[in-house]
Amino acid sequence: MGPAARPETRAEAARALQELLHKQQKAILVTEKDQIVKQYLEHSIENVHKKAIRQSSYMVYWGLINNHILPELGHLKLQRLTVQEIEAFYTRKEDEGLSARTIRQIHSILHRLLAHALRNNLVNRNVCDTVTVPRLKRHEIQALTVEQSQKFLATAKGHRLEALFTTANDPLGDSPQ
User: Fold this and answer.
1) DSSP-derived 3-state class of residue 36
2) Which of helix, strand or coil describes residue 3?
3) Mind listing the pLDDT tens digit for each residue in 53-78?
């Protein structure tokens, strides 16, 4: 008798109840209100998302989940996860030296998994919708000075890519030859 089948007799119902109690006792069956983040993430990534992503993405996801998400959020109840907990988690990761890009990857994973939980009525909302994630740092490009450019071109003299360097140095082609 599968989980969706309805028992026809009292004996079948008693047998089904006994089976469910046994699974619950062995912690195989977790009621939705008691499910922790670890249980949901492991189930979701293996049974839902693994089929929809490349193997390389799957490996990256598992690395981020195992190394960052589960140690800090895995013990929390899925339904009680808050914006403040997620933001504090991101702040701790930033303080540990994780890049904004990596934290954004973690956020993407959490957001995707919680969106799935929302679609399945396991949570009332996706707390990642309103979480503030660290901004990517923009590095200002600094052009070479005229002296640095001349020194670079002098050093590149005779190099097999000299013509490319010269063209890249003067993309408008308005320097005298």
Assistant:
1) strand
2) coil
3) 888 888 888 899 999 999 999 999 98
Q: How far apart are CA 93 and CA 73, in angstroms?
A: 12
Q: Of the candidates 138, 120, 173, 56, which has an alpha carbon nearest to the alpha carbon of residue 64?
A: 56
The CA–CA distances, whole Å, from 18 to 4, 12, 30 equal 16, 10, 15
Taking the CA atoms of 57, 62, 65 and 66 in sequence, report the sign of the dihedral they define.
negative
In 3D space, the residue among 91, 95, 90 whose CA is nearest the CA of residue 111 turns out to be 90
The tens digit of pLDDT for each residue in 74-95 reads 999 988 899 999 999 999 999 9
Domains of the chain: 11-129 (1.10.150.130), 140-177 (no CATH)
The amino acid occupying position 168 is: A
